[in-house]
Input
Amino acid sequence: MQAIIARDPGPLAPTRANVSIAPPQPAGIDKWVSAAEKDAIAVQIQTAALEIADKEVGKQRAGHLPTVDLVATTGKKHDLMSGFMADTRANTIGVQVTIPLFQGGYVMSKDREAVANRRAAEAMLEAAKRGSAQAARQYYLGVVNGVAQIKALEAGLASSLLALDANKLGYEVGVRINIDVLNAEQQVYLTRRDLAKAKYETLMAQLKLKASVGALGEEEVLQVNALLDPTATK
Output
């Protein structure tokens, strides 16, 4: 964290004790994949790049077409004739048509270059769609599996706490030794650690899933922030 923000982050707020992480909505991986292929930031960028490349092809091909220009001129001339000054004014207006016949292959070369760039843009767009779809699948499954793992670890934590209480009671009455209590305590802390890790990873998968479909904004960050307990660090 310090390497990312270039300063000491201070105490980090853990998740609230009763935090509940919901599975992705809408449910169904195909809906998220379709959204990613359409709305992911990388897809939007490459879609715009393809549109630019397509317009460039049209621009270069227009170099083969004749051009029509409206031409207008005006002028005034002074002549000295037999001691008298004569002024002559001329105004002309017309249409000029230019037909490009051959420019040393320049227009054809630029046309081929534009077509090649458009093909490259099409390939990059397809790659962006595939990458975004793969990311959506990965993070969707990360959230779904994370929610299931959290439920399993919460049940495991409850079981570990019961086992710890039983070992403490057994130690008090002499049927358990101190190593049994220590092992039970270790299992409780290991389960708590795994549970906290599962919650953080699932929350990150949620954010990355939203990002994969171009829907990650301030509201989504605030929703995750509301699940943290800043008072726990005091």
Q: What stands out?
A: The two ends are 19 Å apart (CA to CA).
